[in-house]
Write a structure and sequence with these properties.
This protein is α+β, with helices and mostly antiparallel strands. About 40% of the residues lie in helices and about 25% in strands. Strands 2-1-3 form a three-stranded antiparallel beta sheet. The two termini are about 20 Å apart.
Length: about 90
């Protein structure tokens, strides 16, 4: 199976988050940066990758995305900070 990813993007001020799923993380991040990733990310300039997880099964990635989207904001921030304590942009 093809690798899949869930990822979390944010804006410069780290006030808005976007969670997505893809099978090509680098291309998807570049799409967001170019303004073609989604209307939401374009509108709020949410283009900085701050967190991602890799899966071997796309269905697991989709399930994880749904789970994270249902989480409270503080829970998401705590998850991100476990691997990225300063919320720095990840260059993938």
């Amino acid at each position: 199976m093809k690798k899949s990813y869930i990822y979390i993007l944010t804006n410069t001020y780290r006030t808005t988050f976007y969670i997505g799923v893809t099978t090509d993380l680098k291309k998807r991040i570049n799409d967001h940066a170019a303004g073609v990733g989604s209307k939401f990310t374009k509108k709020y300039n949410v283009i900085d990758l701050i967190y991602y997880e890799e899966f071997l099964d796309v269905n697991q990635a989709i399930s994880r995305e749904k789970q994270l989207k249902s989480w409270k904001r503080d829970w998401k921030i705590d998850l991100i900070k476990k691997l990225n304590p300063t919320l720095e942009t990840i260059l993938y």
